[in-house]
TrEMBL record:
Compositionally biased tracts (Low complexity): 392-403
Name of this chain's protein: CHAT domain-containing protein
Superkingdom of this protein's organism: Archaea
Stretch list, region Disordered: 1-20, 383-413
Length: 706
């Protein structure tokens, strides 16, 4: 699908319902609003006139703009030097001059060009930028979405594969440690299998002076691809795996094996880059830097000036165990079957800096499903009322699992937030990724309509309790939703609904071998020719095959089940999933949290592009809090981040807590804060987020006391 480049650029336009402007990214279907004292005049301006790269620009005639929630910002002069920084509830004023103001927004990259004075006022839930001696502010917007620059074709021969995959680093926008910022890592070119090796002239691999040598076997090539992309390294054939530079080398066959060593090096280099970059363009107080500095004897100002090859050498001279505890929780581990048909997944996995493994052994179906059966029995033991009701409607399926089910197995566990599998079979405990869904991420039709469409379908009267999810979506400020609730659909009505442009479908009902149960029979999604629903939750028994049918027919991704589920437990899962998705968690992160807190959570998996989200989190990175009372009246609040496609690993995060001015990386445990009860509740009420209290998952807006 060819997409009009103008249609993919951010749009800066009058706000549809308030005095202000709305910046819309049509590719990511995200939006950011700026309020003004009265209705502003808006004219186009040259995007090239801004200090940072911009895709679109507009001149807005107004005296002030106000953000819908608190964001950090930096004010720089014409030379790029920072003259003021706002990262907490503080106010600053700068005299008339020419300035660039960068906002720490993540939905769209925003900056202001101002020729005049600036007065910044920070409030609890907003930031106001007022102008003096001018009534014009130039707004520049850059999409956070990156498309591959081209497609590389390769044969299945290992030597050709290595040359093709060596081009992925061409997407890096810098060879400095600042490439640890997501906005300076472009999407790698696509790689497809063909009759010959063909590398377009537009793709030029970076000259970083770094190579990675591995035996010419897919099991060695695939795992090093994200590391090669991130370091801009050439992939070359060699007798044993190692990083090879001009005058140094580093072995990649450690005591725990090749894949484990590659994982360690990727995490090690990424962490050290994030620390070193604080000496460069963004000289911020980063929590991880202060921790690493206490553990190593390095002058990071000197390290910053080194070329990439020497930076790597310096990093790797530090034993990984020294800094291992500071490495952020990794977003994604992907098991990729080392088949040529799966090579096209590698650029997408490299783009997320995934840890890539090539699986060798599998559990049997019975071993993989044994724990799931135990969970169902445990639920009934702990819920005797549900057991009595189960004599009437035992589960959401009245037929046994399909005899045509794919091979079921459990991949090896991974120390990451998300786990995915690329290849044939049904992976219990991991997302089932598909190449079509990856490509669909790039090729869907852009829309300029900011309203997100959600359909809730209940096809069983006994399950209407769960239909309260239709009241959960769309409760957040600043995001516009269109909610449709449907009950008792026929097969034709369900088919037409799936053909419509819906961002998210939440189905509540039965799924059998024949398909999705409707009032007049079944709709088998495996036989559909068109599905326009972007994402879905099939909250029904053994719904994987129907979920896979939706993805194969056009959906981006969805949540499905791998075995029978219990009505009461599934209702709880449905409500939790609805709230998590409504807060901007990706489908994979949603399932990760469901597995942690819901009794039958391990029955669910994502099929398709598991990184898909239906909305953006308003603070950038979706997060979860864990609150524990350490002594009477004193509470320890742990904050956990869940990176997304629009807030990838390397994004910085700062919680809006009085006195906190240190940023942190946005993945896993981001920080631990000691607060009294009023301060803890004040923070929790800033945004409706999941919060663990006493081992149970609650929602922060419902917490009135601890």
């Amino acid at each position: 699908m060819n997409v009009d480049s103008d249609a993919t650029r951010p749009q800066i336009r009058p706000h549809p319902s308030r005095d202000g402007i709305q910046v819309v990214d049509p590719i990511q279907e995200t939006q950011f609003s700026l309020l003004t004292p009265d209705e502003p005049d808006i004219d186009d301006c040259d995007p090239d006139s801004f200090y940072f790269p911009a895709d679109a620009g507009a001149t807005v005639r107004t005296t002030a703009v106000e953000t819908p929630y608190f964001v950090s910002l930096w004010i720089r002069d014409e030379t790029g030097s920072t003259v003021a920084e706002v990262s907490d509830r503080e106010s600053v004023s700068v005299p008339p001059g020419r300035y660039n103001v960068e906002l720490a927004t993540t939905q769209v990259k925003l900056q202001f060009a101002i020729d005049g004075g600036i007065e910044v006022t920070s409030m609890e839930d907003a930031v106001r930028v007022a102008l003096t001696e001018t009534d014009r502010i130039h707004v520049g917007a850059r999409s956070v979405h990156e498309r591959p620059a081209a497609t590389v074709t390769t044969t299945e021969q290992p030597e050709d594969l290595m040359q093709a995959l060596s081009t992925l680093g061409s997407a890096l926008k810098t060879a400095s440690c600042e490439r640890s910022f997501p906005s300076l890592r472009g999407h790698p070119p696509l790689v497809e299998i063909g009759d010959r090796l063909d590398i377009p002239n537009s793709i030029t691999a970076p000259e970083t002076g770094v190579g990675i040598e591995v035996p010419p076997i897919e099991e060695y090539i695939y795992p090093i691809v994200p590391l090669a992309y991130y370091t801009g390294a050439r992939i070359e054939s060699g007798p044993s795996p190692r990083i090879a530079a001009e005058d140094w080398s580093y072995p990649l066959d450690g005591d725990d094996g090749f894949e484990a060593e590659v994982e360690r090096v990727l995490k090690h280099v990424f962490l050290m880059d994030c620390v070193t970059r604080t000496e460069g363009y963004y000289q911020v107080d980063l929590h991880e830097r202060s921790t690493v500095e206490s553990l190593v004897d390095l002058n990071f100002a000197d390290v910053y000036e080194l070329p990439l090859s020497e930076q790597l050498r310096t990093y790797l001279d530090v034993p990984f165990d020294t800094v291992a505890d500071v490495v952020p929780k990794w977003k994604l581990t992907a098991d990729v079957r080392p088949d040529a048909t799966n090579v096209s997944a590698l650029p997408f996995l490299a783009n997320e800096l995934a840890v890539v493994r090539c699986p060798h052994s599998r559990e049997t179906r019975d071993e993989a499903l044994e724990d799931l059966t135990d969970q169902v029995e445990s639920f009934f033991r702990n819920n005797p009322d549900a057991l009595r009701r189960s004599t009437r409607t035992q589960t959401r399926s009245e037929s046994s699992p399909s005899t045509a089910s794919p091979e079921i197995f459990r991949p090896d566990p991974a120390d990451s937030i998300e786990q995915a599998y690329v290849g044939e079979g049904l992976p219990v405990g991991a997302s089932k990724m598909t190449l079509d869904a990856y490509y669909r991420r790039l090729d869907f039709e852009p829309t300029t309509d900011p309203q997100i469409q959600v359909a809730v379908v209940c096809n069983d009267q006994e399950m209407t309790d769960e239909n309260v999810v239709s009241d959960i979506y769309g409760t957040r400020d600043w995001i516009e939703f269109g909610i449709e609730a449907h009950e008792q659909l026929t097969a034709m009505e369900m088919r037409e609904l799936l053909r419509s442009d819906i961002d998210f479908l939440h189905y509540i009902g039965h799924v059998d071998d024949e398909g999705i149960r409707c009032t007049d029979g079944y709709l088998d999604t495996r036989h559909l020719s068109e599905v326009n629903v972007s994402a879905f939750l099939l909250n029904a028994c053994d719904s994987y095959e129907q979920g896979r049918g939706l993805v194969d027919s056009g959906a981006m991704a969805g949540i499905a089940t791998v075995t029978d589920i219990v009505n009461e437990a599934a209702t709880s899962v449905g409500r939790t999933a609805a709230k998590l998705l409504n807060q901007g968690f990706s489908l994979a992160a949603t399932v990760s949290i469901i597995k942690e807190y819901e009794q039958i959570g391990h029955h669910y998996l994502v099929v398709g592009d598991a990184s898909a989200s239906i909305v953006e989190n308003r603070s950038g990175t979706p997060n979860k809090a864990v609150v524990e009372e350490t002594e009477p009246g004193t509470y320890e609040l742990d904050l956990y981040g869940y990176p997304t496609l629009s807030t990838p690993m390397g994004t910085m995060f700062i919680p809006q807590i009085d006195g906190i001015q240190s940023f942190c990386l946005n993945s896993g445990l981001m920080g631990t804060y000691t607060l009294d009860q009023p301060a803890a509740i004040e923070f929790l009420h800033k945004q409706d987020t999941p919060v663990e209290i006493g081992g149970s998952l609650r929602w922060s807006m419902d917490v009135t006391e601890l």
